[in-house]
Design brief:
The complex is a heterodimer.
Chain A: E1 4-10, E2 15-16, H1 18-26, E3 34-41, E4 44-50, E5 61-62, E6 64-70, E7 75-78, E8 81-88, E9 99-106, E10 111-114, E11 123-127, E12 131-135, H2 138-143, E13 147-151, E14 157-161, E15 164-168, E16 176-177, H3 178-184, E17 190-191, E18 194-195, H4 196-208, E19 217-220, H5 225-236, E20 239-240, E21 244-245, H6 258-268, E22 270-271, H7 273-276, E23 280-285, H8 292-304, E24 309-314, H9 342-348, E25 353-356, H10 359-366, E26 370-371
Parallel strand pairs in A: 16-26, 19-20, 19-23, 23-24, 24-25
Antiparallel strand pairs in A: 1-6, 1-12, 2-5, 3-4, 3-6, 7-8, 8-9, 9-10, 10-14, 11-12, 11-13, 14-15, 17-18, 21-22
Helix pairs in contact in A: 4-5, 4-10, 6-8
Chain B: E1 3-7, H1 11-21, E2 26-31, H2 36-45, E3 49-51, H3 57-67, E4 71-74, H4 77-81, H5 84-90, E5 95-96, H6 100-107, H7 109-119, E6 127-130, H8 133-143, E7 146-150, E8 160-162, H9 170-186, E9 198-202, E10 206-216, E11 220-222, E12 227-228, E13 231-233, E14 237-240, E15 245-248, H10 255-276, E16 281-291, E17 294-301, H11 308-315, H12 320-328, E18 343-351, H13 358-361, E19 362-368, H14 370-376, E20 379-382, E21 385-387, E22 393-396, E23 401-407, H15 410-421, E24 424-426, E25 429-430, H16 438-460, E26 464-468, E27 472-476
Parallel strand pairs in B: 1-2, 1-4, 2-3, 4-5
Antiparallel strand pairs in B: 6-9, 7-8, 7-9, 10-11, 10-16, 12-15, 13-14, 15-18, 16-17, 18-23, 18-25, 19-22, 19-24, 20-23, 21-22, 26-27
Classes of the chains: A alpha+beta, B alpha+beta.
C-alpha cells in the first residue's frame, strides 16, 4: 500500500479549495486515515489537518494545494516548498527522484508532480478550464468532477503554473507494485490505462482454475475480496452471495498491531448466517499475510453460521518479506508462510482447503508488469 | 493573372494566401501587422500589401480600389462584424466573406441559439441569457453542469465550463460559476456593439470537431472535419484560448456525424436568410461536439477557424482560387469535393504568457530553422509575429506560429509536426506536444465510442422523458 497523493491547481485564481481537497483526499481513504494538505493562499503556504470522517463546511482559500492520505503524515515543509511524498529516496522539486512519487508546491505558486520510473502511480486530469488535478487514484480525479487525461509516465515531472504546463522526462513506466493492483487501489481506478477491476477479474479467473473440491456457495472478505469472489464464482458456476456485513470500513492489512488488525477484521465482518449454514463454503480474499483474517473468518463461518466445510482461496501469492520500498506491512516474522508449510497453515487457520496463486501463476495471470518482491522469501 | 486581396494578418490568412498562391494568382494583402509569411507570398506572386486596420471598412475599400482585385477574401471575424464585406460588395468587389447582418451568427451567441430553436436547427442546447450576473448564477445552478460565455464572440475568451453534478463540491464550484458570470460580462466591456449580457447553457461532454463550409446562398461545400484543442496547456489542461492545434481528417468521427454538422450548417444558413432577409455568402463553420445527445453545435464561426483553416486549405485537392470564386459568385454547386488522402496535424506555438498575460507574451524574439523545416517536410505559417529588428521574428502576444505536418497516417503527420515544432527556436515559447499523438488519437476514439453508444441508444428510443419529482413528466423530441 502506497500513500494517496493529491494535487490541485486552480487556473481560475484563488477560491475556496477546501471541498476539493477534502473530497480528493477522502476519495483515497482506502490508503489510510491520516490526511494532510498544504494549501497556497495569499498568506502563503498553510497546513491543513483534514479529518476524513467529518464533512465540515470549511472555507480555505487558495490557488493550489498538495495533500496526502496514508497511515502517517507524509507531507512536510522545507523552506518555501511543501512536499507530500511516498517512497524511498530524496525528494526536491524540479528534480527526479530515485524511487519516490511526490507532489510539491512552492510558495510562489508552482506545482510539481513526479512519478518515479517504477512502482508508484500518479495520474493527471482536468476539470473544465479551471482545474488541473493530479492523484494517485484516477477515481479521485473523477470524484472531483474531472476527466482523467492520462497516467504520468515513469520518471515524468509535471510542472504546472498559471502560465503553463511543462512535462519533462518520462518513458513507459516500469513495473508497478503488485499490491497496488491486488489490494491498495480502488476498484474503480485505472493504472496506465488498465482498469484495476479488469486485473482483479483476471486473477479471480486464474484462481478459480485451482479450486478442485465441490462447493455450495462462495463469499468474499469485505471489501477487496468481493470482486475477486464474483469472478471465481462466475468461473466455477457456483452461487456468489454477500457473506458478511461491515460495521466499519477499515483496511485491516494496514495496521501494525496484531490486536488492532484483529479488531478491525471483527468490525468489518459480521457473518450472514443464512448465506453459509450447512454449506460447503469457499471464502475469497485478496492476499494472505499473517492468516489472522482468514482464521477469524473461517471460525465465524463454521461456528456462528454453521458451515459444513470452509475452504479459502487467495488471489495473490502469500506475502513472505517486507517491502524494501516503503510499503507498510507487518514484519517477516508475522508472515505465516515464512514459518509453516501449507498443510500446517491450512490446519492452523482451521480451513478444509486453502488455494492461492503461486508466483508463476500470478505473474502469468495478472497481465501487467509488477514488482513481486514481497512474495519472495528474502 | 487574376488578383486576390486577402484581408487579415493571422496564421489563417497566411494559410489562405498560401493556398491561393498555389492557384497562380497575384496576391495582395491588408494587414494590421506585418505578417512575414503573407508578405513573402505577396512579394513572390508579384503583388503588394498595405498595413492598416483589417477591421476598417474604409481601409478595406481603399486597399481594394488600389489593387483592383478579382476577388477579396476576408479572413477574420472582426472585419465581418464591422461590415467590411458589405462595404466591398457595395463598391462592386467580388468578396468571400459574410455580410455583417449574417455574421451575427458568430458575433452573438444568444442570437445564434435563438435562431437554432426558432428554426429547428439540429444540435441545440438549453440556454438562457442574463444581463444580471446574479440571475445568470441562479440559472446556472438550476442547470447543473454549465458553460458560461459572453454573449459576444470575444476571441474565445471569458468562457467557463463547470461540471456541477457533484453537489458536494458546490461550495468550491459555486464561486467559479459566479466569477465566470462576472468575467464573461467583463469581457464585453470593451465592445460597444452588444448588450452587456451573459449566456448560460448546459455543458456537454464529448469529442469536439469543426466542420468548415463555404456557403454561396444556395449550395454548401464542406471541408473535411477538423478537431481543435481549446485548452492552452499540455495534456488539455488550463485556460481556454483560440486553439493550440488541430488534427484532420478525424478517423473517430463517423460519416453520419459529419453529415449532421453539414445539415446544421445548411439549416443555419437558411434560418439566417429567413430571419434577416440576407443571403449567407462566405464561410460558415459549425464548431461541434459529439455528445451523449448526438452531435451538438457548440458555436458558429462566420469564417474559417484558426488553426482549422490550415488543415482545410492543405487537404483540399483542387484550385482554391477557383473554389473561392465559385463560392463568392453562386457557382458552388459546380465545385467538386476532392481532398488529399493524407492526415494533418497542426501545432500552434505561443509565447509564455499566452493566453492569460498578453503583455508578458509580447516582444519575445524567435528564429525559424528553415533547413530543419525543409528536412521535416512541413509548413510554417506566421500568426501574431512580425520581423524583429535584429533578425528573426518578434511575438506580438498571441499564437506566434502555426506549423502543419502531413503524412499518410496520423502518426506520420504527428511526428512530422513534432519535428517541425522543434525548428521554431526561441526563449519562452511553448506548444502542446500531446495534440495528434497516438495516445491522443486513441483517447479520442474511446471517448467518441463512449458517447456514440449512448446517443444511438437514445435515438432508437425516440423521445426523451424527464421525470421531475413533484412536477411531472416532461417529453422532449
Amino acid at each position: 500500500m502506497s500513500a494517496g497523493l493529491l494535487a490541485i491547481y486552480s487556473f481560475a485564481g484563488e477560491i475556496n479549495l477546501y471541498p476539493l481537497v477534502y473530497y480528493g483526499l477522502r476519495a483515497m481513504a482506502n490508503r489510510g486515515e491520516v490526511a494532510v494538505a498544504y494549501l497556497l493562499g495569499h498568506r502563503g503556504l498553510e497546513r491543513l489537518e483534514v479529518d476524513l470522517s467529518r464533512e465540515e463546511p470549511r472555507d480555505v482559500r487558495g490557488v493550489a494545494a498538495v495533500g496526502c492520505v496514508y497511515t502517517e503524515d507524509c507531507c512536510r515543509v522545507e523552506g518555501d516548498v511543501a512536499y507530500c511524498a511516498f517512497g524511498r529516496g530524496e525528494v526536491k522539486p524540479e528534480a527526479p527522484s530515485e524511487a519516490a512519487a511526490y507532489v510539491a508546491l512552492t510558495a510562489d505558486g508552482v506545482l510539481y508532480a513526479y512519478r518515479p520510473p517504477r512502482l508508484w502511480h500518479l495520474a493527471v486530469g482536468a476539470h473544465g478550464f479551471d482545474f488541473a488535478l493530479i492523484a494517485t487514484e484516477t477515481a479521485a480525479i473523477e470524484v472531483l468532477g474531472g476527466e482523467v487525461r492520462r497516467s504520468l509516465r515513469g520518471g515524468e515531472l509535471l510542472k504546472i503554473s498559471r502560465l503553463g504546463v511543462v512535462s519533462t522526462g518520462g518513458e513507459q513506466a516500469g513495473e508497478v507494485c503488485a499490491m497496488e493492483y491486488v489490494y491498495s487501489s480502488r476498484l474503480d481506478s485505472e493504472i496506465d490505462g488498465v482498469e484495476v477491476a479488469e486485473v482483479r477479474a483476471r486473477l479471480g479467473e486464474a484462481l478459480a482454475a485451482k479450486v478442485k473440491n465441490s462447493l455450495d456457495v462462495i463469499v468474499g472478505v469485505p471489501d477487496t475480496g468481493l470482486y475477486y469472489a464474483a469472478w471465481v464464482a462466475e468461473k466455477l458456476g457456483v452461487r456468489h452471495v454477500p457473506g458478511f456485513v461491515s460495521t466499519v470500513r477499515k483496511r485491516s492489512a494496514l495496521l501494525d498491531d496484531v490486536r488492532d488488525r484483529v479488531s478491525a477484521i471483527q468490525l468489518k465482518a459480521n457473518v450472514v448466517k443464512h448465506a453459509a449454514r450447512g454449506m460447503r463454503v469457499l471464502v475469497i480474499d485478496d492476499s494472505l499475510i499473517s492468516g489472522l483474517t482468514l482464521r477469524h473468518i473461517a471460525q465465524l463461518l463454521r461456528l456462528r453460521a454453521g458451515a459444513k466445510e470452509v475452504h479459502a482461496a487467495v488471489a495473490a501469492p502469500p506475502l513472505r518479506s517486507q517491502c524494501p520500498y516503503g510499503v507498510k506491512m507487518p514484519p517477516d516474522s508475522h508472515m505465516v508462510f515464512n514459518h509453516l508449510e501449507q498443510d500446517t497453515v491450512t490446519k492452523a487457520l482451521e480451513l478444509d482447503g486453502l488455494y492461492y496463486l503461486t508466483l508463476e501463476e500470478f505473474q502469468r495471470a495478472i497481465g501487467v508488469r509488477v514488482c513481486t518482491l514481497c512474495f519472495k522469501r528474502r | 493573372m487574376d488578383r486576390v486581396l486577402v484581408i487579415g494578418d493571422g496564421a489563417r490568412e497566411h494559410a489562405l494566401a498560401w493556398g491561393l498562391a498555389r492557384s497562380g494568382v497575384r496576391l495582395y494583402a491588408l494587414m494590421g501587422h506585418l505578417n512575414p509569411g503573407v508578405a513573402q507570398l505577396v512579394r513572390e506572386s508579384g503583388g503588394s500589401y498595405r498595413l492598416g486596420s483589417p477591421n476598417s471598412a474604409a481601409e478595406a475599400v481603399k486597399a481594394a480600389e488600389e489593387f483592383s482585385p478579382d476577388l477579396v477574401v476576408v479572413g477574420p471575424e472582426e472585419p465581418l462584424f464591422a461590415g467590411v464585406s458589405d462595404a466591398l460588395r457595395e463598391r462592386g468587389f467580388i468578396t468571400l466573406g459574410a455580410s455583417s447582418r449574417v455574421a451575427i451568427i458568430e458575433q452573438r451567441k444568444d442570437v445564434a441559439r435563438g435562431l437554432q430553436w426558432k428554426y429547428g436547427v439540429p444540435g441545440r442546447l438549453v440556454y438562457g441569457v442574463f444581463a444580471d450576473v446574479a440571475e445568470a448564477y441562479s440559472f446556472a445552478k438550476a442547470l447543473g453542469s454549465v458553460a458560461i460565455k459572453p454573449v459576444r464572440q470575444a476571441g474565445g475568451k471569458g468562457v467557463r465550463v463547470v461540471y456541477g453534478e457533484a453537489k458536494y463540491l458546490d461550495s468550491a464550484l459555486d464561486e467559479v460559476v459566479a466569477r465566470g458570470a462576472q468575467e464573461a460580462k467583463a469581457q464585453l466591456a470593451s465592445y460597444g456593439d452588444v448588450p452587456q449580457a451573459v449566456l448560460v447553457e448546459e455543458a456537454v461532454w464529448g469529442v469536439e470537431y469543426t466542420v468548415q463550409a463555404l456557403v454561396d446562398g444556395e449550395s454548401v461545400f464542406a471541408f473535411l472535419p477538423v478537431q481543435d484543442n481549446p485548452h492552452a496547456y499540455e495534456l488539455g489542461l488550463g485556460p481556454e484560448c483560440g486553439g493550440m492545434g488541430t488534427v484532420s481528417p478525424l478517423p473517430f468521427i463517423e460519416e453520419g456525424e459529419f453529415h449532421t454538422a453539414v445539415e446544421a450548417i445548411k439549416a443555419t444558413a437558411e434560418a439566417v436568410r429567413r430571419e434577416f432577409g440576407v443571403e449567407y455568402v462566405g464561410v460558415l463553420s459549425g464548431q461541434m461536439m459529439l455528445t451523449a445527445m448526438g452531435p451538438v453545435v457548440i458555436e458558429y464561426y462566420s469564417r474559417f477557424g484558426d488553426p482549422e483553416a490550415l488543415n482545410a486549405v492543405y487537404l483540399y485537392d483542387g484550385d482554391l482560387y477557383d473554389l473561392f470564386l465559385k463560392a463568392a459568385t453562386k457557382k458552388l454547386h459546380k465545385a467538386e469535393r476532392r481532398f488529399k488522402a493524407e492526415y494533418t496535424v497542426v501545432k500552434a506555438i505561443a509565447p509564455l504568457g499566452y493566453p492569460l498575460d498578453r503583455r508578458l507574451a509580447a516582444g519575445r524574439v524567435f528564429h525559424v530553422d528553415w533547413d530543419a523545416v525543409r528536412r521535416a517536410g512541413c509548413l510554417v505559417f506566421f500568426g501574431s509575429a512580425e520581423p524583429a529588428e535584429g533578425g528573426g521574428y518578434k511575438t506580438l502576444g498571441s499564437r506566434a506560429v502555426e506549423i502543419l505536418g502531413a503524412g499518410a497516417t496520423p502518426e506520420e503527420a504527428y511526428e512530422r509536426a513534432e519535428r517541425c515544432a522543434a525548428a521554431v527556436k526561441g526563449e519562452g515559447l511553448f506548444y502542446r506536444s500531446d495534440i495528434g499523438s497516438p495516445e491522443y488519437m486513441a483517447a479520442m476514439k474511446r471517448k467518441a465510442e463512449q458517447v456514440r453508444a449512448v446517443y444511438k441508444w437514445r435515438g432508437e428510443r425516440g423521445e426523451r422523458l424527464v421525470w421531475e419529482p413533484g412536477k411531472g413528466l416532461i417529453r422532449f423530441g
